Amino acid sequence: MLTQPDAMMNDWYLWAAVLLAHGFIGLILTAAVAWIFKPAEELAGDMRRLAWVVVSAIYFLGWEGCVQTWGAGFLDAAVDTAAVSLGGLIGISAWARKGASVALSGAAMAGMLVVGIWRRK
Q1: Cα 2–Cα 58–Cα 6 angle in degrees, nearest 5
Q2: Residue 7's CB: how many other CB atoms inside 10 A?
Q3: Range of the domain at 74
Q4: How many other CB atoms sit within 10 Å of the CB of residue 112?
Q5: Is 4 part of a structural domain of the chain?
Q6: HSE of 66, CA atoms in CB hemisphere, 13 A
């Protein structure tokens, strides 16, 4: 089952699909939290960054740590969290119209894909 921790060391295609799914989850969750925080922007400034940090921290500690109890190892949890975080960063950067940040985040995600696929071939 896909909710069970697994580093998928023998299946590069499934690993790549799951990594991209983590990025999409990060984008959606960060957008949702930023939308919830939106009314506070007038008082406290840019809440998109706060939403990004909140989603990344809750994913890492809450999902990877508490729910999955680092089941596939700390490195796998770190990679999954990095993908969630990069997906969120791509979203908030696009929302803020910061093309360089979108490009750098996308390049980082592509780099993770290449390294991960290479390790699994």
Answers
A1: 25
A2: 18
A3: 12-120
A4: 19
A5: no
A6: 6
Q: Per residue in 76-119, pLDDT tens?
A: 999 999 999 999 999 999 988 899 999 999 999 999 999 999 99
> Tens digit of pLDDT for each residue in 6-64?
778 888 999 999 999 999 999 999 999 988 988 877 766 678 889 999 999 999 999 99
Q: How far apart are CA 24 and CA 11, in angstroms?
A: 20
Could you give the C-alpha distances from 28 to 31, 41, 75, in angstroms and in order?
5, 19, 23
Cβ(121)–Cβ(12) under 8 Å?
yes
Assigned domain for 49 exists: yes
Amino acid at residue number 8: M
Instruction: Name the residue among 71, 29, 68 with its Cα closest to residue 51.
Output: 29
pLDDT at 63: 94
Retrieve residue 87's tokens. Answer: 């997906």
State pTM to two decimals. Answer: 0.88
Say which residues have a Cβ less than 8 Å from residue 101's Cβ, sequence separation at least 6. Answer: 89, 93
